[in-house]
Design a protein that fits this description.
Helix content is about 70%, strand content about 0%. It is mainly α. Helix 2 crosses helix 4. The radius of gyration is 21 Å and the shape is globular.
């Protein structure tokens, strides 16, 4: 049995509408979604774009996570990831209590190595490993930072907080992600690092992007770039600035602001020409390749799916690219291919997304929505299509 026959976003939109005793016409007017588009989305005839989901959420005064069904509780429980969330939340809550007398932190060099190891785990797609270790490291790093009261100590703690944000965001816990981001800012201020402050504003903007609040997200993009101006000129500063522009491009694209999106892409491209590939600088994967990948994403956000697919034809992904970034790219490509009715290639891209980073792909809303949209046409797809659906969720009490 396939995974998502009864519970896709269109079904949830219909349920949420009925709970509020609204007609389809009323929701269309409240959200600004064309009536035909809205009704077809509810029926599952067309897939909901991020723009449509965001508009629906704003019109209904809901969180985007509620509309798309995150977090995927049953799947998290089956993968034994749900039990890792509470310790992270508790570790984030003791940030201001000073050094814990019951905690004996290791040398700062060891903690810095662990902080980088967490970043590597997330970007290799091993979310469970990062989630398993980050709470304990936050507790140790908190005591070390308060005891040392040094720039390096605070920045190491900020890195632990960033991993907590990564884990929460990828598993679909927006409230926990916001809390982790607030802790990043708190530690970055104590470390007096303007570049990290700009990175914080970028990550904060991404949270608003996921929530469909594009106007606030764009203001944070501007603020992030302004924050970077306080830092000395360096390749590190340029890399973060370039990545902020890429975030701004996707933000503008999802808001259907084509001019703004292309402007951000142009500025990011100019910066990438100076920095080259900078995969490991704050593990942002910035460089010419990421600019190209974001161009594909922006075209898709602007509903130019054919152009998005064409833009991938000359894309060569470097061998050292993080698996999580590769997986995300193929998820985005699968969506564009599905919209151009290239169903077989869309499913092949979903398979590539899973192969690159299976834990991430399983909890990626775009993967799940694209699969749900392909489900109606599964007879035209390979036999392993249904097994992919079983892998996405629990089937017979087990995860396949």
């Amino acid at each position: 049995m396939h995974a998502l026959p009864e519970d896709h976003t269109g079904v949830r939109m219909a349920r949420l509408r009925r709970e509020r005793h609204l007609t389809q016409r009323a929701v269309s007017e409240l959200s600004g979604i064309p009536y035909s588009t809205y009704t077809k989305t509810e029926q599952g005839v067309i897939a909901p774009t991020p723009h449509v989901v965001a508009a629906f959420a704003r019109g209904m005064n809901l969180e985007v996570a509620t509309v798309i069904g995150q977090p995927y509780v049953d799947e998290l429980r089956a993968d034994e990831l749900d039990i890792l969330i509470r310790p992270i939340r508790e570790a984030l809550d003791v940030y201001d209590l000073g050094a814990d007398p019951d905690v004996r932190p290791r040398r700062l060099e060891d903690l810095k190595a662990d902080a980088e190891g967490l970043l590597v785990s997330v970007r290799s797609g091993d979310i469970k490993q990062a989630a398993s270790n980050v709470a304990g490291l936050i507790e140790e790093g908190t005591t070390a930072a308060h005891s040392l009261n040094s720039t390096e100590g605070w920045l190491t703690l900020a890195s632990f907080y960033r991993t907590a944000y990564d884990v929460a965001a990828k598993l679909g816990f927006p409230d926990l992600a916001q809390l982790a981001l607030a802790r990043v800012d708190w530690a970055a201020q104590r470390g007096s690092d303007a570049v990290l402050g700009g990175l914080y504003q970028y990550l904060r903007a991404l949270s608003y992007l996921r929530e469909g609040k594009f106007a606030i997200g764009q203001r944070l993009i501007v603020r992030g770039l302004a924050t970077l101006e306080q830092a000395e000129a360096s390749r590190e500063r340029e890399v973060v600035a370039g990545q902020i522009h890429l975030g701004g491009a996707v933000m503008a694209g999802r808001a259907h602001d084509e001019a703004g999106a292309l402007s951000h892409l142009t500025q990011a491209e100019e910066i990438a020409g100076r920095t080259g590939e900078a995969v490991k600088v704050h593990y942002l994967t910035f460089g010419p390749t990421n600019v190209h990948v974001h161009r594909v994403s922006v075209l898709a956000e602007l509903d130019k799916y054919g152009e998005a697919v064409e833009a991938t034809e000359c894309l060569a992904i470097p061998e050292d690219w993080p698996k999580s970034r590769i997986s995300h790219h193929y998820a985005e490509l699968a969506r564009a291919q599905m919209w151009t009715n290239n169903l077989e290639d869309s499913f092949k891209s979903l398979l590539k997304a899973r192969k690159a980073a299976p834990q991430q792909a399983k909890y990626h809303p775009t993967v799940r929505e694209t699969y749900a949209s392909l489900e109606a046409a599964h007879r035209r797809l390979p036999e392993n299509f249904l097994s992919y659906g079983s892998w996405l969720s629990v089937a017979g009490g087990q995860v396949t």
